[in-house]
Structures are given as C-alpha cells and as structure tokens.
Specification:
Order of helices and strands: HEHEHHEEEE
GO molecular function: metal ion binding; sulfuric ester hydrolase activity
Structural class: alpha+beta
Protein name: Arylsulfatase I
Pfam families: Sulfatase
Shape: globular
Cofactor: Ca(2+)
Strand order of the largest sheet: 3-4-5-6
Domain Sulfatase N-terminal: 2-94
Strand content: 15-25%
Distance between the termini: 35 Å
Helix content: 10-25%
Length: 188
Amino acid sequence: MVTAMDDAIGSLVADMKRFGFWDNFLIAFISDNGADVVNGGSNYPLRGAKMTLWEGGTRVPTFLYGDILQKSGYVNNNLIHAVDWFPTLLAAAGGRNTDKDLDGLNLWDMISRDGPPVRNEFVYNIYDVEYKRAAIRVGDYKLILGYPGLPCDWVQVSEELEGIELETTCPKSNITERGVYLFNIKGK
C-alpha cells in the first residue's frame, strides 16, 4: 500500500511539473478519524480507535506541502475540524466565502504561516440515537458524555475543579454506564 501511494504521488508531482502547476499547488493528506485497531491499525500513543470519542478516534495527523505555504517545516497542534477544510482551501485558492451558513472556519492564515489559532472550542460528535454520547473540547479540556468507546484506562485530571463533581475515571465494572469524563488534553 505504501509503495502504491508513493508511486501515485510521484506521478501526480511529475504531472504537476509537466503541466506547469508545480509553483501554485497544495498537496494535503487528511484523515477523518483514527485507525481501526480491530483491523490492525494503531493510534499509539493515543487512547481509543475509530468510532470512539477518545483522542485515538478523533485526533489525526495532517500533512501539507506546496509552494503556496508561507512557512513550512513546522508542527501545528491547533484545532481543525473536518468542516474547516472547505473554507480554508477556498481561501488558499483565492476564493471568498459568500455563503455565511458554512459550518467551517477559514484557517488558511494559521496553516499557511503558522498564524494564531482560530478555534478554541470543538464539538467532536453528538450521537443521540443509538449510543447516547457526545464530546466537546474547550481550550485544553475535553468533556465526554456517555459511552466514549473502548478502551477505558486513563488517569484522573491533575488539577482540582472546585464546585464541580465529575467522574474522571471509567467504571471498570460496567463500561456502558452513562458517565461524564473531563480531562486536560495536554495533561501529563
């Protein structure tokens, strides 16, 4: 699979150069969810997998390459949602968003030159029919409601949250029990 992908990308780059697009393009490798561990995938060191609300099911790497990037060779850990790609790539192509009803945000400045973060909050998912679960991130904190998906082996939040009662570890005896889980994404 890796060889086939490498060959396909090589062909794409060769064609971009041959047809004169090499100086004005962007190659983006993007995923929508973590690996499926049942089929041999790994999200290490993140907990969880595809179809879970843990970081291993929701956080994915993205790789961008192209001369239209003002800055390259850096790591950006800011929040990006799948719905942000359309307005971001539209801006990269020089277009303007005239539809104010788009869910996504234009993150082109943040991505192309390592500009300041645009998002501080992020709704991961809301499953209200079958699984009754949801997750949201605000700043460095992620809140999961309901069944988050396996595995269920994390540590408690390191700082005290005064006046708020939260279950910060999964019940070992019954993982399908409705729970509230809060943790610091950047916590050790």
